[in-house]
Amino acid sequence: MVGEKVTQKPHQKLPRLPEGTKISKRPLFHDEIPSPYAGKSKQKVVYISMSTPFTSAVKRIEKLLRPIEQRHNQTELSRQKKLKGRRGQYLPPPSPTDIGVEEVVVKATGKAIDNAMQVALFLQSKNDLAIKIRTGSATSIDDITPNEEQENVDDADELPESRLRQISVIEIGVTLKSG
To answer: What is the 3-class SS of 28-70, one letter each residue?
Structure first.
């Protein structure tokens, strides 16, 4: 890996639209947001946009982390009760799935990535939280429509109804540190 040259394909721009057309961006689809008290099987997600205030984003994440911590404490308490009831018997340590796997995912796209990173840096400064950052891209659909003023566009036959574009996405996994 050291010394190897990494080459990327050059970014290809989308074709230029004809005069008298405009783009209307469709909203990205989001999964249904489960209750904060839903178990491990449901992913807890916080979506960050450009207009999301910093403090409310942090409070929303902490609110989702509280039940996770309570579930972990309850599991550990029941584990200790079992240990007291069985003196002399070996009880294996808690598995890594007990804590750390259940995470709150912070998602942001485009310009909101900076806001999400600021929230992640703030949460990382807290000693009891672990942060994992995953980056990627998502496909967004844009609809192409003629302007109201100019109904007869020259290339109306060649005008596509929609087009795809790639947008940057960041996912930040916030988990409780074990131990």
So the answer is: CCCCCCCCCCCCCCCCEEEEECCCCCHHHHHHHHHHHHHHHHH
**166 within 8 A of 142, measured Cβ to Cβ:** no
* C-alpha distance from residue 96 to each of 38, 75, 77, 99 (Å): 20, 13, 16, 6
Joined together, the tokens standing for residue 82 give: 């079992």
pLDDT value of position 98? 46
For residue 6, give the DSSP letter.
Answer: P
Residues 46, 64: Cα–Cα separation, whole Å: 9
Contact 155, 176 (CB under 8 A): no
Q: How far apart are CA 52 and CA 62, in angstroms?
A: 15
Q: Which residue has the higher pLDDT, 22 or 50?
A: 50
pLDDT at 128: 85
DSSP 8-class letter at 7:
-
Half-sphere exposure of 105 (CA within 13 A, CB side): 18
Three-state DSSP state, 115 = helix
* Cβ-contact 119, 47 below 8 angstroms: no
Q: Where do runs of H (alpha helix) occur along the chain?
A: 54-85, 113-124
